[in-house]
């Protein structure tokens, strides 16, 4: 009976350890993918339906986030984009990687996620074949809410989507990296100086554009002003933004890397097994 009780307690400990390791992994899958494509995406993310929460994202759900924000040609009629979200420890920041997304970049997604209030998470946005990735943010935000049990602010999500779309459209003319730098610097100035009036924001836009040697059209300036006014109404701290983006200088080298925490837990299991063998020999 003593052995049985000990083994039962050990198995409970193992179950708790591994449940804790996987319970917060969430995968969003485009509902219009075939079963084979869905499985391919799970393989890419390195998870199965047994060890991650899998949610389907429909085109209607994507439209609820993007209608009136993104061009119709970018939204499309099918839900294809997928994402992997794994919350990390406090202070870890955002780690983002994309695969087969042709219009959005890691930095575009990371900056927009920081605006939306997504914090301390490992994120992979991908598709089984090349797509624009416009709807990737939708699945990521849904996945983060499922993984953490926290609802993101509706206005923050709207501002985040508008930020990403505006950055992507600017990227078509300025180049993606230049568009990201421009939008991010403008956003930091707006938040840091608590700017909200169109004239003040216009002054910052012109200042940053001049710094990068960029000429913006009146329509582009007005679009950026609209995004920044929405961001100015959010409860965002400039230090939070910086902390969340601190890892983006070092891109993820693999889709899913084994975390230090997981390695430590595996070592705990090995240590417990060694202890168990020693006790069984003694008994």
Overview of the molecule:
With 283 residues, this protein is of the alpha/beta class. It is built from twelve helices and five strands. The chain has a five-stranded mixed β-sheet with strand order 2-1-3-5-4. Strand 1 (26-30), helix 2 and strand 2 (53-57) form a beta-alpha-beta unit. Helix 8 crosses helix 9 (198-211), helix 8 (176-192) packs across helix 10 and helix 9 (198-211) crosses helix 10. The protein is globular, with a radius of gyration of 22 Å.
Topology:
Layout lengths: L1 H21 L3 E5 L4 H11 L7 E5 L1 H8 L5 H4 L6 E6 L6 E8 L4 H11 L4 E11 L4 H13 L5 H21 L1 H17 L5 H14 L6 H15 L5 H7 L15 H23 L1
Parallel strand pairs: 1-2, 4-5
Antiparallel strand pairs: 1-3, 3-5
Features:
single chain, 283 residues, alpha/beta, 12 helices, 5 strands, 58% helix
Summary of the model, kept short:
The protein is α/β, with parallel strands linked by helices.
**Gyration radius, to the nearest Å?**
22 Å
- How many β-strands, per DSSP? 5
Which word captures the global form?
globular
Which consecutive residue ranges, at least 5 long each, have pLDDT under 50?
5-23, 251-263
Q: Could you state the oligomeric state of the chains shown? A: single chain
The number of helical segments is 12
Mean pLDDT: 85
Termini gap: 12 Å
Helix-residue proportion: 55-70%
- Give, in spatial order, the strands making up the sheet with the most strands: 2-1-3-5-4
Q: Give the amount of beta strand, in percent.
A: 5-15%
> How many strands, which pairing sense, and closed or not: the largest β-sheet?
5 strands, mixed
Give, in order, the helices and strands: HEHEHHEEHEHHHHHHH
SSE-based structural type: alpha/beta
């Amino acid at each position: 009976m003593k052995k049985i009780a000990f083994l039962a307690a050990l198995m409970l400990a193992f179950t708790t350890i591994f449940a804790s390791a996987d319970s917060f992994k969430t995968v969003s899958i485009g509902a219009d993918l075939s079963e084979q494509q869905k499985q391919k995406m799970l393989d890419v993310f390195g998870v199965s339906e047994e060890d991650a929460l899998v949610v389907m994202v429909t085109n209607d759900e994507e439209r609820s986030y993007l209608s009136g924000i993104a061009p119709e040609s970018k939204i499309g009629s099918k839900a294809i984009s997928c994402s992997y979200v794994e919350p990390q420890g406090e202070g870890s920041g955002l780690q983002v990687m994309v695969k087969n997304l042709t219009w959005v970049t890691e930095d575009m997604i990371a900056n927009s996620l920081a605006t939306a209030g997504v914090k301390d998470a490992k994120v992979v946005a991908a598709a089984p074949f090349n797509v624009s990735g416009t709807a990737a943010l939708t699945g990521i935000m849904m996945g983060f809410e499922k993984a953490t049990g926290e609802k993101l602010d509706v206005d923050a999500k709207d501002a985040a989507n508008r930020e990403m779309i505006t950055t992507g459209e600017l990227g078509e003319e300025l180049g993606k990296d230049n568009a990201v730098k421009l939008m991010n610097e403008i956003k930091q100035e707006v938040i840091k100086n608590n700017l909200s009036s169109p004239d003040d924001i216009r002054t910052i836009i012109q200042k940053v554009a001049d710094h990068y040697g960029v000429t913006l059209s009146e329509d582009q300036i007005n679009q950026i002003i609209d995004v920044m006014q929405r961001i100015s109404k959010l409860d965002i701290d400039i230090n939070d933004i910086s902390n969340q983006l601190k890892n983006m200088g070092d891109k993820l080298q693999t889709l899913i890397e084994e975390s230090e925490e997981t390695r430590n837990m595996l070592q705990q299991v090995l240590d417990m097994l060694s202890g168990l063998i020693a006790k069984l020999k003694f008994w």
